[in-house]
Design a protein that fits this description.
By secondary structure, the protein is an alpha/beta fold. Helices cover 24% and strands 15% of the residues. The strands form three sheets. The protein has an eleven-stranded mixed beta sheet, sandwiched between helices. The radius of gyration is 22 Å and the shape is globular. It starts with a strand and ends in a 9-residue tail after the last helix.
Length: 500
C-alpha cells in the first residue's frame, strides 16, 4: 500500500533543502521513452541514509531524492552478497533459478596483483538475457559504470557481451576492494590511474572517475533514451575516502576503536574508521548529486527515472574497519551481509520520476531485485520485451501511485550456499529461514512473523507447524539444483510427499 507518511524528522530535512532547490523538469518529451538511471550502492545498510533513519551520517542528496519520489520500505536484494544479487538484478531470476548463486572464482583464474590480474567471478552464460540487452533492443544507449562481478574480460559474462555499449570500472569484485586502484577497465582495455599504488590513499579515487564517466555518458546521450547502470563500490571496505570528506567527520564521532587497525581481515586498515566510513557514504551521496545535477542541466529530469538501492545489507563488524553496530546500519533488523535474515537482505530503495511517481510517498509493497527488470521495462513502455521465464513482477502500479492495481508475489525466495548454506522464503507476513545447510543434515526451519516481529527475534515454528509445512513445500518447488553452486542436502531432497 502506498501512502504519504513522512516523519517529523523527514519534514525537518526539507527545510534545509529548500535553499538548494529541487530538480525540475518539463516532463517526458512526447514520443520519447524515459531515460533510466539505476544506482546500486555496495554493502549500504537499510538504515545508513538519513531518510531511512540514520543519525550520524549526512546524506542530503538521497534524502532529497526520497522527498521528490517514493521510498520502498519492504524491498529486498536478491541475495545477501554481491555477485548473486547482481545476477538476480540483471536477469530477473531469483536464486532458485539464477545462474550465479554465490560469490566465487572460475577455475583457472587466479589473482596476481603485480600483473594486474583478477579472477573476475563466474561469468553468466551467453544465453542469459539481461536488462541491458532488453533496453538495447528497444534502442536505448546502455552504460554500466562501477563494479560488475558477473564475468571477467572476454568471457561470456563480459558486460560488453551482455548488452552494455559502455563498461567502465572493476570487472572483478576482489579488484574493487581497493578504491585507489592502479587501473580500471573500459570496454576490455585497462585504463591506468597514475599516482595510485595499492595504498590507503592515492591520487585518484575510483568514485571520482566513475562520476566523470557518468557525467560524460549523460552528455553524450542526452538526445536519445539511455539506460545508465551505476553499481558504485561505496561503502564496501576497504575504508577509503578523499581527505576533504574524512575531515568533515574526524573528531565528531567519538573515539575510533583501536581494534579496527589490529584486525582489518584482509583489507587496508584506516586510522579513523568511523570518520572514514561516514565520509565514504557522504561522498557517495555528493557524487550522486553531481549526476542528478547534470541530468537537470540538460532538462532531462522530468523524463528520467532514477532508482537507488543497495546490493545487500551492511558488512560484518570489524571486517575492514566497518562498524555496523556503531552506525546502527541495519536499523531494527537482525542480520548483516551474508545472512538471509532481514538485515542481510532488506535494502534502502528510492524511486523518482517527477510528475509520474508521487512525491514524498512511501510504500510497504513487498518486492526484490528480480522485480527490477520487469518494473523498469514496464515504466519505459517496453513491457512487451519482458521474458516469460523470469521470477520478477512489475512494481510499476505501486510506483505510479496505483497500489490497487498492483499484483503481489505469492512468495519471495532466496537460497545461498555461502556462510554455511542458507535458505529463506517469505510468505505474506511469514518468513521461513534455514541455516547451516552445508554443515549437516538438519533441515529445521525457523519461522518468524514479520508483521509482529520484524527483528526476527521469536521463532514461531513450534506454534505453527502447518505454516512450516507450507513453506517447506514452497522451498522445494522454488528451486532447481545448480551444478555450479550445489547445496547437497537440498539437492538430494525428493518431493515432500515422498519423504520418509
Amino acid at each position: 500500500m502506498s501512502r504519504p507518511r513522512l516523519s517529523r524528522w523527514f519534514y525537518g530535512i526539507l527545510a534545509g533543502l529548500v535553499g538548494q532547490g529541487v530538480a525540475s523538469g518539463s516532463g517526458p518529451e512526447e514520443g520519447r521513452p524515459p531515460n533510466v538511471v539505476l544506482i546500486v550502492a555496495d554493502d549500504l545498510g537499510y538504515a545508513e541514509l538519513g531518510c531511512f533513519g540514520q543519525k550520524r551520517i549526512r546524506t542530503p542528496v538521497l534524502d532529497r531524492l526520497a522527498f521528490e519520489g517514493m521510498r520502498l520500505t519492504s524491498f529486498y536484494s536478491g541475495s545477501p552478497v554481491c555477485a548473486p544479487a547482481r545476477c538476480t538484478l540483471m536477469t530477473g531470476k531469483h536464486t532458485g533459478h539464477s545462474f550465479v548463486r554465490n560469490n566465487g572464482n572460475p577455475p583457472g583464474r587466479v589473482r596476481d596483483d603485480d600483473r594486474g590480474l583478477f579472477p573476475g567471478q563466474n561469468p553468466i552464460p551467453d544465453d542469459e538475457v539481461t536488462l541491458a540487452e532488453l533496453f538495447k533492443r528497444r534502442g536505448y544507449a546502455t552504460g554500466a559504470i562501477g563494479k560488475w562481478g558477473l564475468g571477467f574480460e572476454g568471457s561470456s559474462g563480459d558486460p560488453n557481451r551482455q548488452g552494455f555499449d559502455l563498461f567502465f570500472g572493476y570487472l572483478c569484485q576482489a579488484h574493487a576492494h581497493n578504491h585507489y586502484p592502479r587501473f580500471l577497465w573500459r570496454n576490455g582495455e585497462q585504463v591506468p590511474l597514475p599516482g595510485n599504488d595499492r595504498g590507503q590513499t592515492g591520487a585518484i579515487h575510483a568514485q571520482e572517475r566513475f562520476s566523470e564517466e557518468a557525467l560524460r555518458f549523460v552528455e553524450e546521450h542526452r538526445d536519445r533514451p539511455f539506460f545508465l547502470y551505476l553499481p558504485f563500490t561505496i561503502p564496501h571496505v576497504s575504508i577509503q575516502a578523499p581527505e576533504e570528506w574524512i575531515a568533515r567527520y574526524r573528531g565528531t564521532l567519538g573515539d575510533d576503536p583501536g581494534w579496527i587497525n589490529e584486525s582489518p581481515r584482509g583489507y587496508t586498515s584506516h586510522p579513523t574508521p568511523h570518520a572514514g566510513y561516514a565520509a565514504m557514504v557522504s561522498y557517495l551521496d555528493h557524487e550522486i548529486g553531481r549526476i542528478l545535477d547534470r541530468i537537470d542541466e540538460f532538462g532531462l529530469t522530468g523524463e528520467t527515472i532514477v532508482l537507488f538501492t543497495s546490493d545487500n545489507g551492511p558488512t560484518h563488524d570489524r571486517v575492514g574497519g566497518a562498524d555496523s553496530a556503531f552506525f546502527d546500519s541495519n536499523g531494527p533488523f537482525r542480520g548483516l551481509k551474508g545472512q538471509v535474515y532481514e538485515g542481510g537482505l532488506r535494502v534502502p530503495t528510492i524511486a523518482r520520476w517527477p510528475g509520474r511517481i508521487p512525491e514524498g510517498t512511501e510504500s510497504d509493497a513487498v518486492g526484490y531485485f528480480p522485480d527490477l527488470l520487469p518494473t523498469l521495462l514496464d515504466l519505459a513502455g517496453a513491457s512487451d520485451l519482458i521474458p516469460e521465464s523470469i521470477d520478477g513482477l512489475s512494481l510499476a502500479p505501486t510506483l505510479l501511485g496505483s497500489p490497487g492495481d498492483q499484483a503481489g508475489h505469492d512468495w519471495l525466495y532466496w537460497e545461498f550456499p555461502g556462510y554455511g548454506g542458507q535458505q529463506a522464503l517469505r510468505l505474506g507476513d511469514w518468513k521461513g529461514v534455514r541455516t547451516d545447510l552445508m554443515r549437516g543434515e538438519d533441515l529445521g526451519l525457523e519461522l518468524y512473523n514479520l508483521a509482529s516481529d520484524p527483528g526476527e527475534l521469536h521463532d514461531r515454528s513450534a506454534e505453527h507447524p502447518e505454516i512450516v509445512d507450507r513453506i517447506e513445500r514452497l522451498m522445494f518447488e522454488a528451486r532447481e539444483p545448480s551444478a555450479l553452486f550445489p547445496i547437497p542436502v537440498l539437492d538430494a531432497l525428493g518431493p515432500p510427499d515422498d519423504r520418509p
